[in-house]
Design brief:
Blueprint: E1 6-11, E2 16-23, E3 34-46, E4 52-67, E5 70-71, E6 75-82, E7 88-101, E8 119-126, E9 136-150, E10 153-158
Antiparallel strand pairs: 1-2, 2-6, 3-4, 3-7, 4-5, 4-8, 7-9, 9-10
């Protein structure tokens, strides 16, 4: 693990932005052996006049096994974004994690996957919501992070509330 919870940077050579951060979650009032997380990523691309000419969305759904209502180990997030043909680009990641079920997939109180598995990607990143909207949370917490960068460097970074 890092000495700090997050790092980020920009390479002017290949015009890539990267970030790495860890998070953990606990939910003592959740009686299930897992938490469910869903993630929506919105990527926007801008021309030299800062007009958006393209926007995409990606959706992810995953389950994390818990022990005593806490992640068994920190969840590592690595992101890297290139500017491609854009003059500037922004990325917004919206995540929600909590105690809930996903009908026909994760419905009971026990971990529904093999015992040696700590993490289950139920739905990999895809351009349509799929099962993203089918999760039924008893309760959850949301967080977001965002970055906007220009071909000459980083314009702004908004870290989640738990990274300060």
């Amino acid at each position: 693990m890092l000495d700090q919870p997050a790092i980020s940077g920009f390479s002017s050579t290949n015009q890539n932005f990267f970030q790495l951060f860890y998070n953990t979650a606990s939910s003592p009032s959740c009686k299930r052996e897992y938490l469910i997380q869903r993630v929506k990523i919105t990527k926007s691309y801008y021309d030299k006049n800062h007009r958006r000419y393209k926007q995409t969305h990606e959706y992810l759904v995953e389950a994390m096994r818990t022990k005593n209502s806490t992640y068994k180990r920190a969840d590592m997030h690595i992101r890297s974004y290139s500017i491609n043909e854009a003059s500037s680009r922004s990325t917004l990641i919206e995540a929600e994690i909590g105690c809930g079920i996903l009908p026909n997939e994760a419905t009971g109180n026990t971990w529904p996957y093999s015992r040696g598995t700590l993490y289950k990607e139920i739905q990999g990143y895809q351009p349509t919501p799929g099962v993203y909207n089918k999760i039924k949370f008893d309760f959850s917490k949301s967080y977001s992070l965002g970055v906007e960068f220009h071909e000459t460097g980083i314009k702004s970074i908004t870290w989640p509330y738990f990274i300060k």
